[in-house]
Design brief:
By secondary structure, the chain is mainly α. The chain has three domains: about 80-195, no CATH class; about 205-320, Orthogonal Bundle (DNA polymerase, domain 1), CATH 1.10.150; about 330-520, Intergrase catalytic core (hpI Integrase, Chain A, Orthogonal Bundle), CATH 1.10.443. The protein is about 45% helix and about 5% strand. It has 20 helices and eight strands. A three-stranded antiparallel beta sheet has the order 1-2-5, with helices on one face. It has a three-stranded antiparallel beta sheet with strand order 6-7-8. A two-stranded antiparallel sheet has the order 3-4. Helix 8 (about 215-225) crosses helix 11 and helix 9 packs across helix 11. The longest helix is centred in the N-terminal third of the chain and has 26 residues, at about 160-185. The radius of gyration is 27 Å and the shape is globular. The model has no long low-confidence stretch (mean pLDDT about 85).
């Protein structure tokens, strides 16, 4: 079961907020079950993310410090049987409290429905269709789980706490059904009680990894279970190998926070191939983030006793912003005018088409460049009378692995993009699979095409290091979308940005309405040289 992660979001009043559940093993010492800060609504998304990052780091550092000084012994894990048995103890407490005086049937029905995570799952329950979970854990259940653990004087792993909450939710459904029957006068024997195992106190978790297992073996285990993208595997393998070599192949179970701090300091000093040191952001968000995730997986799976990366971070001053991150009007003109220039005869048809169309598609969609370079003929079609492009993981890499349909701006249609697609052969539009050189999945052809386009943009004179040669289109899209009054939700849906609130994530945008929002973008009229 996945561990809940803190996320940045907005409240209905516009305030920025987040929520971090304090792990059960340090909750008593911490003094509260959760942290729920707010920040002013006036903050930009970038400013809010910076505040969120600093807050989350401070909370995790405090948790790590409490764990390191905890004298009550290590956290314990719960087997499936133990978790069900402990939840059963709570179930029996509920029956003792409410069994003889069940109260109102509607009240129990309402509480029961709150545990279903969606309207569809609630509707299925009404049709007596089975629900396999996971259940929605209400604040009441979280509080009851914490109370139960405190009563048993148990400090459990986060995975065990998640499992216990789900077992309690499952039994609470049965308990609500029982109470509803009791309100109708049915005081027959409760069949659930006979199925509950007897509670046996859990034992402390001991690492199961052999003391000499290397870091790279741990990484291989992470990859086998989590199955990250090929690009992530390629990058993270390099980061973890760097750590392993820095520590002279020290066993994973023996790595300490001091080792990680020494590695961090070395990363900040070590020059890259260009002779420049790594930025604090690179060290924090790539090297340390990868190590933290992999060691976190190892701890969850009882491979190591602790995650040595927790609490280790890189603090740096706010990066000075010297210009906007999107392309200026002049830069836009330079790039798009160049798309109409003749290409060298040695270029393949796909490379020529990439230069001609990828910048325009990025400009009118805000899509990531590799989402465009991976497009196939079958990804361009009509839906509800609107020409769309299907940005899908089936074609390559899509952040969050979520496909989305993006309407094509009328200017693209008038330039002949659809006619070009219809005249193309099946398969990728902007690279030729037959010309692949057998490279790794972590560096596919569509990604290489994106890199070549970036080099080409630089060669045109768009050389300011403070604007990315491909990513500048995404920033420009958001800027223009705001200036023309595009619906705030649409200007996130179209480029594939995460939505701010849970409510916004419900339902889908109708394609015709999304096309209306796309058409708010003014046509880009090229000036003569």
């Amino acid at each position: 079961m996945a561990i809940r992660m803190a996320k940045l979001s907005r409240t209905p009043t516009g305030l920025w907020t987040s929520r971090k559940v304090i792990p059960a093993d340090v909750r008593t010492a911490y003094g509260k079950r959760e942290e729920k800060p707010t920040w002013p609504a006036s903050l930009t998304q970038g400013q809010a993310r910076a505040e969120f990052g600093a807050w989350l780091t401070s909370v995790e550092e405090r948790i790590a410090a409490l764990r390191s000084s905890n004298d009550d012994g290590p956290a314990v894990d719960l087997t499936e049987r133990q978790s069900r048995a402990l939840a059963g103890e709570w179930y029996q407490q509920l029956e003792a409290e409410y069994g003889d005086d069940p109260g109102d049937e509607i009240g129990w029905e309402v509480q029961r429905e709150q545990l279903y995570p969606s309207d569809e799952s609630r509707a299925a329950a009404l049709d007596n269709l089975p629900f396999e979970g996971p259940w929605r854990i209400t604040p009441y259940l979280k509080k009851e789980a914490s109370r139960l653990l405190e009563h048993e004087r148990l400090q459990v792993t986060e995975r065990a706490e998640e499992r216990l909450q789900q077992d309690m939710a499952d039994l609470f459904i049965s308990f609500c059904d029982l109470m509803m029957r009791r309100t109708r006068g049915d005081y027959g024997k409760d069949p659930v009680l006979a199925m509950l195992p007897k509670w046996q106190p859990a034992q402390p978790v001991e690492p199961s990894i052999s003391s000499d297992a290397p870091i790279m073996s741990m990484f291989d285990g992470y990859v086998d279970e989590r199955k990250p993208s090929a690009a992530t595997v390629k990058a993270w393998r390099r980061f973890l190998r760097h750590l392993s070599e820095f520590l002279d192949s020290k066993p994973a179970a023996s790595v300490t926070p001091d080792d990680i701090i020494s590695w961090k300091d070395y990363l900040l000093r070590e020059p890259k191939k260009d002779g420049q040191p790594r930025s604090p952001k690179t060290v924090r968000e790539t090297y340390l983030a990868a190590a933290k995730a992999v060691f976190g997986w190892a701890k969850e799976n009882r491979k190591v006793a602790d995650n040595p990366v927790v609490g280790v971070t890189v603090r740096a001053g706010k990066r000075v912003k010297v210009r906007e991150r999107g392309f200026t009007s002049d830069e836009t003109q330079i790039i798009l005018r160049a798309t109409l220039d003749p290409v060298p005869p040695r270029f393949t048809r796909q490379t020529a088409l990439a230069r001609r169309w990828v910048p325009w598609l990025c400009a009118y969609s805000g899509a990531r460049v590799n989402e465009i370079t991976q497009l196939r003929k079958q990804d361009i079609f009509r839906r509800d009378g609107v020409w769309v492009m299907n940005i899908t993981p089936e074609a390559g890499s899509v952040k969050n692995d979520e496909a989305r349909l993006v309407p094509l701006h009328s200017h693209l249609l008038d330039q002949g993009f659809v006619a070009l697609v219809e005249s193309s052969k099946d398969g990728p539009l902007f690279y030729d699979p037959s010309r692949g050189r057998g490279g790794s999945d972590g560096n596919p052809q569509y990604k290489k095409m994106g890199e070549r386009l970036a080099s080409w943009v630089r060669s045109l004179g768009v050389s300011d290091p403070h604007v990315a040669p491909n990513h500048g289109w995404r920033h420009r899209f958001k800027t223009i979308a705001r200036s023309v009054g595009m619906d705030p939700e649409a200007r996130s849906v179209i480029p594939g940005h995460a939505l701010d609130t849970e409510g916004e994530r419900y339902g889908e945008w109708p394609i015709p309405q999304l096309a209306v929002e796309i058409e708010r973008l003014p046509r880009i009229i090229l000036n003569p040289d």
